[in-house]
Amino acid sequence: MTRWFQLPILFAASVLVGQSSQISFSEEARGSGVAPQAVLRRLTHSQYNKTVRDLLKDSTDPARQFPPEDYVNGFKNQYQTLSVSPLLAEAYSVAAERIAANAFRRGDSRGLIPCKPLSNDDAVCRTEFI
To answer: Where are the domains of the chain?
Structure first.
C-alpha cells in the first residue's frame, strides 16, 4: 500500500523509467492484432542528469554518484550493452530518494501532484499522479 509520503520516491523513479522507454514494433506485429513488444532502455548517466534537470529543474547531477559506465566501440550509449547491475540499482534508489527530497522539500510548491488526496489510500489520485 502506497502512502502519500512515498509518492516523491515514486515520482523520482518514474523519471528514470518513464523517460527511458521506447517502443519498437516488429514488421510481424504491425497490423497483426498482436500487441507490440515495449522495449525499455536504460538512460546513460548524462541522459539521466539531463532528464532530472529538465523535468525538475534539479542541476545536482545525481548520476555523478553512479558507478562508471563502460565504453563500447568508443561510445557510452550502445543501448544493447547497457544493463542495470545490483550496484547501479542501489545507486538509482539512493538518487531517487535525494531527487524526491529536493523536489518536495517545500511541500508540493511546484504543483507536481496533480490532485488533492482525500486519504492516504486515495487510489484515484495516486493513479493520476503516477
So the answer is: 8-105
